[in-house]
Amino acid sequence: MQGKRVFEVGSFIKWLEPYADGIVKDAGTGIVLKVFSHDFYGRKIMTYEVYRTKYNDKMRFEEYELEEIDD
Question: Which domains does the chain have, with CATH numbers?
């Protein structure tokens, strides 16, 4: 991962859904709907609710599962 990324609401992104071993199970594009900040034992973790265009649904992702798409 290349440093700390913070995606804004409305960002057009590529999402990745990995298996536990890191192999990518599924991927697609979407739009960030909400941003959540969590404190996990003193470590700040950001999660994002994303509208997935491929499935016409919403799903939450961590930062490492998202990449920004340049318009």
Answer: 12-68 (2.30.30)
